[in-house]
Amino acid sequence: MKARLPIRMQIAVLAVAGIFPWFAAGAQGSLQSQLQAKYQLTKPTDDKSDIVTAGAVLVLQKDKLLMYPTSTQVPPVNTYSGGKLSEGAYGVHQKLQGFGSMIGHPPPQTVQGRQFVTGEKFWVTDIAVQPDGVLFTLFSDPYQDVRYYSQLKFIYPKGSNLSADQVLSLVAEVLTVQPDDSAKSDDSGNQQQAAAGGDANQQPAAADAPAAAPAAPAAPPATVEIGQTPDQVTAILGQPDKILNLGPKQIYVYKDLKVTFVKGKVTDAQ
After folding, report:
1. 3-class SS at 61?
2. Could you tell me where in the chain the CATH 3.30.1450.10 domains are found?
């Protein structure tokens, strides 16, 4: 005769089985949102030859991140664990093939990958939160007309239950976001005005100022249209706060707007 759990214990077991999957899914979704808020995704074209929408620019903080040309079917998967960045099975496979050619085997058909080092920059096109870590898909600017991509998996320590803040700190050991230079210049101007004893947003009062004239009708907002040239855009909006040169693509960064040019024509403004 089989022993049965008391009714109360059966209810408790069923409750735990129902609650924990929901709880884990909720925590996973929260971490996904926080990661994508910090590391804004870039959208490439379907053939991975160009960028449709630019996201955050990532700066590498470790040496030797292996990337393959986007013409290859599968990107290499690098790993980060215990403070060490590794090429994983892809790097080992390439080294074994190289060793085989040295001892007399026919030359292997290896992929001409590229090793990225500390300080180099690229984009992130996808972030996947997995049970044992977080997987980033990375995408580079052209190098001699070749774009590269790879995946980087941040592996959680065994037996650990990292909080979202701890996961963000783990990722920041390898990937940081390039700061926005235009925001820095705004802050610098405010600090200089404050040092001079004035409020950055306060205008000096004029003594015995005449009564203000009726306000003129507001001018229609300046607009940028697809196909315009850089000269046309600067005539409308003025000189940008910053220009990002990305090979055949340029991005003019204004305070509240980013204008993307491809081959000297506007393709996106947001």
Report:
1. coil
2. 180-186+225-270
H helical segments located in 40-153: 88-102
Type of residue numbered 120: E
Q: Cβ distance 81 to 200 under 8 Å?
A: no
pLDDT per residue as tens digits for the range 78-124: 999 999 999 866 555 555 555 544 555 554 556 789 999 999 999 99
CA dihedral over 75, 80, 85, 90, signed as positive or negative: negative
Q: 99 φ, ψ to 5°?
A: -65, -40
Q: Which two tokens stand for residue 2?
A: 């089989």
- Specify the length of the chain in residues: 270
Topology adopted by domain 180-186+225-270: Beta-lactamase Inhibitory Protein; Chain:B, domain 1 (3.30.1450)
Closest CA to 180 of 229, 251, 270: 251
- CA-CA distance, 187 to 200, in Å (whole number)? 10
Q: How far is the CA of 36 from the CAs of 27, 134, 248, in angstroms?
A: 14, 12, 27
Q: Which residues pair with 127 in a beta bridge?
A: 136
Give the pTM: 0.56
Q: What is the pLDDT of residues 151-197, one digit of tens each?
A: 999 999 998 899 999 999 999 999 999 997 655 555 556 666 666 55
CA contacts within 13 A on the Cβ side of 26: 5
Q: Tokens at residue 20, please?
A: 């924990």
DSSP of 71-137: TSSS--EEEEETTEEE-HHHHHHHHHHHHHHHTTSPPP-----EEE-TT-EEEEEEEEEETTEEEEE
> How far apart are the C-alpha atoms of 268 and 149, rounded to whole Å?
23
Question: How is residue 127 written in tokens?
Answer: 């972030």
